[in-house]
Amino acid sequence: MTIVMQQVVSKSQFKAGLLAYLRSVEKNKQPLIITHDGAAVIKVVPYKEQPVIKSLRKTVLSYKKPTEPIGLKDWEVMR
């Protein structure tokens, strides 16, 4: 079981130390919650590449007409 410690700061604290907070999230791989009047409004999380996207990289061989809409039959196949 992994325990994730979340750091909580107000918007004004975050604004004053933006770069330091972002570096902390990146370095420690821990989320940061930003509050406004004591209520959580934003959660900053470390970036993690999605495995599905990674596996699809470089799989498209060519773009014949990238701006053309696909046909209804083709759309149903993609479901």
Query: Alpha-carbon distance between the termini?
Result: 35 Å
Overall form? elongated
Largest sheet: 3 strands, mixed
In the sheet with the most strands, the strands line up as: 1-2-3
CATH class category name: Alpha Beta
As a percent range, the share of strand residues is 15-25%
Number of β-strand runs? 3
| Rg value | 20 Å
Q: Look at the helices and sheets and give the structural class.
A: alpha+beta
Residue windows where pLDDT falls under 50 for at least 5 positions? none
Number of domains: 1
**Which oligomeric form is depicted?**
single chain
**What is the assigned CATH homologous superfamily?**
YefM-like domain
Share of helix, binned: 25-40%
Arithmetic mean pLDDT: 84
Q: What is the CATH fold-level name?
A: YefM-like fold
User: How do the SSEs run, as a string of H and E?
Assistant: EHHEEHH
Count of alpha/pi helices? 4
CATH architecture annotation name: 3-Layer(aba) Sandwich
Please characterize this protein's 3D structure.
The chain is α+β, with helices and mostly antiparallel strands. The protein contains 4 helices and 3 strands. A 3-stranded mixed sheet has the order 1-2-3. β2 and β3 (39-44) form a beta hairpin.
Task: Give short descriptive properties of this protein.
single chain; 79 residues; alpha+beta; YefM-like fold; three-stranded mixed sheet; 4 helices; elongated
Chain-wise SSE layout:
Blueprint: E1 7-10, H1 11-16, H2 18-28, E2 32-36, E3 39-44, H3 51-56, H4 72-78
Parallel strand pairs: 1-2
Antiparallel strand pairs: 2-3
Summarize the structure.
By secondary structure, the protein is of the alpha+beta class. The chain is built from four helices and three strands.
